[in-house]
Specification:
The protein has 322 residues and is mainly alpha-helical. It is built from eleven helices and no strands. Keywords: Membrane, Transmembrane, Transmembrane helix.
Length: 322
């Protein structure tokens, strides 16, 4: 068996995923039954049984989805630890790029995290209403989410069983090397142009949050998410590492950098999530939630300040720009 699968971190991750998947399969089966027969206006014994069953199913789904939210940072932490046994890898960057399944698996996990957040919000709104008006919507949403989680499970297996341990993989200095930075930044942007766009978009997202423009905010936030990835990787990360040749979105997750990467990436994730989730609310339950706009602005500001802090700190101490 591959040494990857014998790693303690991966064993814990796969075991947790297996348990959660079994619970989700049980929830999926019962969700189909509830969805097919649910009618709150009826006073039949079947409807009464469905309401009791729904409480249990919702409890299972909520438990699993919350654990999956916690499991994602553990997954990235596990990938980082695998760099100790995979030749050539210096951090999770080399592990993610070790085969063709790594990047798509990571992207799918992030997408699923967004959807889990949306489901939890819809569920909380449904439970506080006496007539459970969003029950059918949330079960339909869960079925879609379950299909994605099945795909995620398949990708997990394909990815982890195909990480080479005998052949060297590329390290982050090759993947994100400074020699060809220009060709990797989208729209052929230079670093100054990338930074201007980064700060303009952050202000625009906050402005649209204040104005509560749902559709425009959705697309602007997704663009901000995209541009922020490149701004952090190719500019701000060099100030976190205090080395102009070190550009990597993963090394900042390590202990040597006080795990600051987790705070940076999750503040970005939450800022964008709260910003775009109102479009899902409008689509599924025909309702906008003002507090989502406020939370989005708070996390966007936090993310921008965190990134800028390392640049300002380095410039104040050293008096130069990398």
């Amino acid at each position: 068996m591959s040494s990857i699968l014998l790693s303690n971190d991966i064993i814990i991750y796969l075991f947790s995923q297996a348990i959660l998947f079994i619970l989700l399969c049980i929830a999926f089966y019962n969700s189909i039954i509830i969805l097919k027969n649910w009618d709150f206006n009826k006073t039949t014994s079947l409807q009464y049984k469905l309401e009791k069953k729904s409480y249990l199913v919702i409890l299972i789904i909520s438990f699993v989805l919350i654990i999956k939210l916690i499991l994602f940072p553990y997954f990235t932490y596990s990938l980082d630890n695998l760099s100790n046994i995979v030749p050539g890898a210096m951090c999770a960057a080399g592990i993610v790029g070790a085969n063709e399944y790594g990047e798509i698996n990571l992207a799918l996990k992030v997408f699923i995290l967004f959807l889990i957040g949306v489901w939890l919000i819809i569920n909380s709104l449904d439970l506080i209403e006496k007539t459970y008006p969003y029950t059918k919507q949330k079960y339909l949403f869960f079925i879609f989410l379950f299909i994605l989680i099945v795909l995620e499970t398949i990708l997990d297996v394909l990815y982890l069983t195909n990480i080479p341990t005998q052949e060297p993989v590329m390290c982050c200095s090759i993947i994100f090397g400074v020699n060809n930075t220009g060709s990797k930044i989208p729209f052929n942007l230079s670093i100054p142009s990338l930074l201007i766009l980064f700060y303009l978009l952050s202000v625009l997202v906050i402005f649209l949050n204040i104005q509560k423009k749902v559709l425009l905010n959705f697309f602007t936030s997704l663009l901000f998410f995209y541009i922020s990835y490149y701004a952090v990787t190719y500019f701000f990360s060099t100030y976190i590492y205090e080395l102009p040749t070190h550009q990597c979105p993963f090394c900042m997750l390590q202990k040597e950098y006080n795990y600051i990467g987790y705070f940076i990436w999750f503040s970005l994730f939450l800022g964008v999530f709260f910003s775009i989730s109102n479009l899902f609310m409008t689509f599924f339950i025909k309702k906008e939630l003002d507090y989502l706009f406020k939370l989005s602005s708070i996390f966007i500001v936090l993310f921008t300040v965190l990134c800028s802090f390392y640049f300002i700190k380095y410039y104040v101490i050293n008096g130069v720009i990398l």
